[in-house]
Structure formats: C-alpha cells, structure tokens
Amino acid sequence: MAYSDPTYVIFDGDEDAWAYRFMKGWNASENVSFEFANAHDLDNMTGRAQDEDYVKRNLRNRMNGSSQVLVLIGEKTKNLFRFVRWEMELALDLGLPIIAANLNGSRQQDVSCPPIIRDKCVVHVPFKMKAIKHALANW
Hints:
Structural class: alpha/beta
Largest sheet: 4 strands, parallel
Helix content: 25-40%
C-alpha cells in the first residue's frame, strides 16, 4: 500500500543518514513492499541552505504538508538541538502523529529517546522495514 500523504523524516544527518538512505532504497525497490511519500522529496533546498532561517522555513513548509513524522533515533539524536530537536518540537506543536524508529533495535522508549518526545504519545518501533511499514499504515 502506498502512503499518499507525505511522511516527514527527522534524523541526525551526520550519524544516521545511512538509515534514511536504507528507507529511500526500500521505497525505490520494486522487489520490496515498502512505500512512503517522502516529504523531503517535495522540493530541493538551494545553496542558501547554509542560512538557518532559510532552512527552518523550508523544513516548516515540508512538515506543514506532512501527515505524520518518523524520527530515526540513533545514539546521538537526543543531543541534537539546532534542527533535530526543533523539528520534533514543531511536530508536537502541529499535533502530527510521531513514530520513533530506534536504530538500536529497541521496540520501546529507551535511554536514546530525546527528552522532548519522551513519555509523549509516540509509537516506538525498531528500525526494521516491517515494523516501520506497519506503524506508517496504522498510526
């Protein structure tokens, strides 16, 4: 089943981009049953992406057009404030459903969970294709 409403993915671009690329690979593969509309594919940022206000304005527009948020939680995610924490705070403010995919394989909230979404109405799943697919379809 394809998800026509975009999913906004939050992740540590320095440490956890591999997981985001895995998801994009699952989505692109004809041999894998995993589809999602990626909010980050809606537009490209230009060279002005160095300007924090410009980046946040564009990210806000992407999130406003999204139906849910998927947070890829790695070892350092909870320590990121400039964009990652801001994105999670925005998702909470917008009342978007949040799915937390734990890169360490945990099926529940654990010590890696960023404090801003800790003990909130968030579905925690391991970073596994079937678990993420189920959460995207049912949350």
